[in-house]
């Protein structure tokens, strides 16, 4: 007899299956058609993606830097790449302002106790592994003509209310990058000063709507399958068909925890790749580690070459790396209990132990049709939930903000 927990999970699985089988194809066709129409009409909004010079993530370059070079300049993650491949978007790096609404970054020091404030400020003077700081490319918020954009998206609030109120024709939106930060919880209920929309980062199917009117489900990893092929069009090393993919790309925390014996077992399935933290370089001048990012040419090529991406063990994660891997063409496997968006793991891709992982890999290798079906499912989910649906919901939310003003 099933336990109550097993019965509840069974109902969730059935609901998810019906949503994928009947609703997703219909909804995605409508979304695709509407996006194509917006492109054809030249109606895609002009967007600025903005970050402060004390932000230890995303790009470090001047406005107008070519897309491939901009992505290579990232300090850590690839970020919402589809904003640049599918919208008319520019990246703007600004100097940190002292207005209270622009101090979300301080919560990482004060409330989350990641590092002292000085650690974040030090990125203004020197980026680890580079001979320059972000201030070299940053501009004052006073010197940007924000009227050139229809929508401005801040990674944490980067443009203060005293500036945003001067441009009532612009829609102002923001991420709180760290979902554990107090400002994230506050923003689910009410907007920070000077802002119109809060980008929540979630991308799961919704069976009950619960967002406030100002909240948009819009992933930080705004990706679709093939997004990096669009971004790095001249990089032939990324063009690897599904039939030619081989091996496994391991989430870096998992790679660190593997024994030599376990690694040898995985090598039966092809090359084993990772951004394993033991390979992190160290900047003696800055006194900081220099992380290996997935936007480095060799690592991005490995992601596109790998047949599988695996996350097991270690801390729970949001799923950014997994979505990025699926966008690169890999099939993601692992422990769903370590993932916020566990629906991406079907039963054949779920493994809570190393022995189960090996069993799943052996079965997928032995049954090409099963592998193809698992691959198609994950790509369909990422394309819809991490790109097409949030793209249209952002466009619609901007239109509603403008309608309220008029």
TrEMBL record:
Q: Which domain of life is it from?
A: Bacteria
What name is this protein filed under? Uncharacterized protein
Organism per entry: Thiocapsa imhoffii
């Amino acid at each position: 007899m099933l336990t109550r927990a097993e019965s509840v999970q069974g109902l969730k699985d059935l609901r998810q299956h019906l949503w994928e089988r009947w609703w997703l194809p219909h909804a995605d066709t409508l979304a695709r058609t509407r996006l194509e129409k917006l492109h054809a009409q030249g109606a895609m909004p002009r967007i600025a993606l903005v970050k402060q010079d004390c932000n230890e993530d995303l790009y470090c370059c001047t406005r107008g830097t070519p897309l491939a070079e901009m992505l290579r300049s990232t300090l850590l993650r690839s970020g919402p790449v589809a904003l640049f491949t599918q919208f008319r978007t520019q990246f703007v790096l600004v100097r940190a302002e002292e207005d209270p609404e622009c101090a979300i970054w301080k919560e990482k020091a004060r409330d989350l106790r990641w590092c002292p404030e000085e650690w974040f400020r030090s990125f203004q003077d020197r980026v680890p592994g580079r001979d320059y700081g972000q201030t070299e490319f940053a501009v004052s918020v006073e010197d940007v003509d924000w009227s050139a954009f229809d929508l401005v998206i801040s990674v944490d609030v980067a443009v203060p209310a005293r500036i945003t109120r001067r441009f009532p024709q612009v829609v102002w939106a923001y991420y709180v990058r760290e979902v554990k930060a107090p400002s994230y919880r506050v923003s689910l209920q009410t907007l920070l000063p000077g802002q119109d929309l809060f980008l929540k980062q979630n991308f799961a199917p919704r069976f009950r709507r619960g967002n406030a009117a100002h909240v948009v489900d819009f992933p930080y990893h705004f990706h679709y399958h093939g997004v990096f092929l669009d971004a790095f069009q001249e990089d032939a090393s990324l063009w690897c068909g599904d039939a030619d993919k081989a091996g496994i790309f391991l989430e870096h925390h998992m790679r660190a925890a593997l024994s030599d014996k376990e690694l040898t077992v995985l090598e039966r399935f092809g090359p084993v790749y990772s951004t394993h933290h033991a390979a992190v370089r160290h900047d003696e001048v800055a006194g900081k580690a220099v992380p290996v990012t997935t936007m480095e040419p060799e690592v991005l090529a490995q992601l596109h070459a790998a047949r599988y991406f695996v996350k097991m063990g270690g801390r729970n994660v949001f799923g950014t790396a997994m979505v990025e891997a699926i966008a690169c063409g890999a099939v993601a496997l692992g422990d769903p209990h370590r993932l916020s968006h566990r629906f991406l793991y079907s039963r054949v891709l779920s493994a809570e132990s190393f022995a189960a992982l090996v069993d799943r890999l052996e079965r997928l290798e032995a049954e090409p049709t099963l592998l193809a079906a698992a691959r198609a499912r994950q790509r369909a989910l990422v394309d819809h939930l991490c790109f097409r649906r949030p793209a249209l919901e952002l466009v619609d939310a901007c239109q509603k903000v403008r309608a309220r003003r008029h």
